[in-house]
């Protein structure tokens, strides 16, 4: 083992030696520089290894050969080994990244860099407060020099601000140290802690000065303008060091000195300062467009978050360290990686990050880093946040949870906007950039560290058993073969899903609910993937993301615990986000989708937290016995699930997201993905149970929401000219029916709900597949540019016709079953008013269905569509398989509905339905699907035969082309009969669908951004103002903590 | 006596802070910062003062059991470090001022607001 | 105006903190534990008459190493920030010659100042002073030269050489302590000698000599670079 003191000896020895090398020996200096950093990494790494593998005891390093407190003592324990390894790894990779720049600036720059890394190491290891002061001072002076590497004027301005403010804070630190020394008679941190400085007012001021200086170093909001400027002005490679190595070290140092003020409210103040920083920095960042400054705000926000966690350590107990480490390591890897990518792109505006599309590896890592910052699985921050929320909830600290979730959401606002720009923003000319190997390697290494730590922390948190690795490994495998042509990946994916369904099925025996949903999720997956054979090329990135979504969906089914459920919920969200954003114009829609999704996910997380806190039991069945704020918990969970079912108020993301998605993605996200929300609601309602006093109001309100959603969705569909948006609005309406039916909490209502769920899955998949195929074929979304497709695409026509018969609820198809059950349920429940709304909405549905089939398939064939052929067989095959499904379900519903009936019977004492073969009887009447099918089918066949017989005598007329009748109209749509066909209705009822809700959310977001814009005016750029902020911060903190305010 | 010195030190710190926050000439701000630093150093030395204490330089090896009557040497050692650090910071600041002046041809602090928001 | 009031208000706030600090301050009546230990054992353990030096170089030697690094880093930063190519220099700049008094004083005083500086750091363990003080005196001699002749060229490679060698030597002596004595920077790698004489206190004077050379070189370097800046063409 190499003693840790050699970290100092080697680094300083090398730095001093480098002065000897002139220009001639520059290369040797460069080699020594990298070798030196390598040896530092080796020393700290071997200690880390020693602690982890051999569980060695903490090593105390006595300098000068005397005992503390008389000589300075360093300590190398497990935590120090972790931190120094992190610092040195970042230092080594960062040096590689910056090497050409450092080399150009000469040996001096390398020396400064080396000393920066060395001093950060010592600050972590030292146990002596004055020594800590000296080395943090070395660190900040070295940093002040590294900022100048770019040589730009703004770097000097930033450096000046940094020097002045850190000078003031270290002056205060010195005052604190000297008074604390007088009281404790020692300079070691531990002696000062044992001297109980906070006990007497005199020494508590010393402790205050100490702590406040360290807090200022961590850049608390709003006294942090000087720190942000450093991130903005420094080279991103230096930004990476400050954010990854520097921030980690200062957090650890803070953790070491915090006990100086233990024993009173100060921890609470620290947590509060952290929380304000976390929220404030993220808020201000929402207006930021400079990538480095944005990352700076985000860094400071994350440090605030960690400061808050440290401040809450009395509440979190022994989990504090592991929670903060999981968040720190995500921040560390992600920020270093992001800053480095920023250095490669060298863009002034985040919009220019669209250039990143040219390099798929960097784009992938960029996405991974952002998701790690937000706290998506499988990254460490996900587990950290989960543990944090659960522990806080258990101890009743709800307001902290709200702060964390709000701040994380605000973080999502700007990070996902950024990601959207990178993936999708239209850019006339993507700026060129070079990715040299020495810059790519550090970024990739950070990616590896991130994923490696994810795996490791999953193990440490003992979450391993909670995660189903098989689907995840499959996703990885698909990712590995992403370069292959689409049809190969398609086949592999289908085979994999089919096998997994086969593998999973036995475990779902006697669990009909999950069988139904696995049918929808995986059956749907296979069918929609079949349509993918119609696509050419490699479809880079499509398959891993689609499979990630399906893996998440399967995981929801398999989930036994809340953690599993949430893990997979997030997995599904991430996968579907990437699927949705693939559409040509999908950037804004995917953005609103992901924002609603994370907001919903946080609502679910808090609901789970309350459930966990009530029962101290992580299983999903804890949901049925929530004792902490039960009404709130159930409402949060319902709202969370409703963001996925796109219920009224939370639906505005859906039309765009579904309408603009790729032709085979639309059915995936509509027919399949929305059902995840339904599944969640079913689990929730089952847990709530009938007559739960805490949820009566909730269910009643949700019933109304469901009814109104149906109305708004259907009305919205009526006024659409875009075929896919029409279908998207129709989905909102249908999901409204489903929500409404389940809120009845009666046997009949649930039966109707299940029928609607199954029906919607089938017909919406068909419609989106076929209409999507037609849209691609015709090259337009607009229905008024279509027409007369019945002869060109007869198979499509039949598929759409059957689907709309189902939606319309016309006998003999299964839509009628749904309606019949539904009205039975409404009458039985007595919700007549809502029922009337639904009934009205049903009529509205006919309008849009008519518009759809009429304007696409009937009417005049357009001139430019004369040579159009039927859509691809690969789209028709799954559609017709689903049509067969619809037929079976229509003719013999009892085979599915009767088992469902049996399954839900134990949950509801209410009236049931009696099945005699295909004859269903309720107190209100009876219905026999098979008979109806036979009667209507026979009548239909007779009519059809008669028509065909008649058509033999019909006289064929050539199409009359209006273009030749007169001048070509300036706006062709005005001559199309189906354009604005329901203008009259729109005049009368259009106000219902006036975009009030969209406006509401727009106003909300505008106000938030306005507020952020107003807040960030404090960062006026003036050195003196920043100093003022710092002094103000200190005075206010003093008055609150000691001054007796 | 030590109280007067302590007050002097604290007052110097306040004066330095005033200068840093109020003066417009960036060069003078550096001077104000040096004043602030000096104030800190004066306070530090004062803390180690012991009435009737001698300078902590021994003229002979102390005998067992008797403690030489000296002032506390620790703050003096610390202040030495602090002075050197202050020197480094001041030198660096002056370099910055040089470069800033070279760039904008102005010493007015308000001309260095390129970075904001 | 508003800002001025705010500043005064804030200063009053800081003043309140200081007032509280002052009010609760009581001048010490006896040495702290740490100080008492040094007073009792410092001479015996380190062998230095100047206890401050004993603390600075040995007991808290690591701080001193940090201090040296700060000066070193500062000098390095200043030199890479203000580095200029020789052709950027304005050779034709006309400077008013220094006064007779200054010129004469420079010639006479410079060697004396350097001598005094060396004396101060060699005797750092016995008398007030030490490496930093001695180095600063040497640097002021260099400053005097620059005052008399602004176009004076410091030989940077010699300075860099002195700086590097003494810095490395400091670290090596420190590391020897780790190997031959109780720990990093332990001065007992050499005999403590007779108390109060020049050759006493083990490696302490040696370290102080290196520190003195290093600090002198670094400060001279800083002075040199800053002085040269005025000769640069704009």
Rounded mean pLDDT of chain C is: 88
Pairing-aware structural class of the strands and helices of chain C? mainly alpha
| Strand tally of chain A | 5
Number of strands of chain C: 0
Distance between the termini of chain A: 53 Å
Kindly state the mean pLDDT of chain A as a whole number? 90
The strand line-up of the biggest sheet of chain A is 3-4-5
Assign a percent range to the helix content of chain C.
55-70%
- Oligomeric form: heterotrimer
Number of helices of chain C: 8
Uncertain stretches of chain C: none
Number of helices of chain A: 40
Q: Give the tally of structural domains of chain C.
A: 1
Q: What is the CA–CA distance across the termini of chain C?
A: 37 Å
Please report the two chains with the greatest interface, counting residues with C-beta closer than 8 angstroms to the partner's C-beta: A-C, 72 and 63 residues
Summed up, what is this model?
The complex is a heterotrimer of chains A (1045), B (117) and C (234). Chain B is mainly alpha-helical and 117 residues long.
Task: Describe this entry's structure for a reader.
- The complex is a heterotrimer of chains A (1045), B (117) and C (234).
- Among the domains of chain A are: 201-236 and 252-460 and 1003-1045, no CATH class; 463-580.
- Helix content of chain A is 71%, strand content 2%.
- In chain A, α20 runs antiparallel to α21 (512-530).
- The longest helix of chain A has 32 residues, at 153-184.
- The mean pLDDT of chain A is 90.
- With 117 residues, chain B is an all-alpha fold.
- Chain B has a single domain, classed as Helix Hairpins (Orthogonal Bundle).
- The N and C termini of chain B lie far apart (49 Å).
- Chain C has helices at residues 2-23, 33-46, 51-59, 61-81, 100-122, 131-148, 156-180, 204-228.
- The longest helix of chain C is centred in the C-terminal third of the chain and has 25 residues, at 156-180.
- The model of chain C has no long low-confidence stretch (mean pLDDT 88).
- Chains in contact: A-B, A-C, B-C.
- At the A-C interface, α1, α4, α5, α6 and α8 of A face α1, α2, α4 and α7 of C.
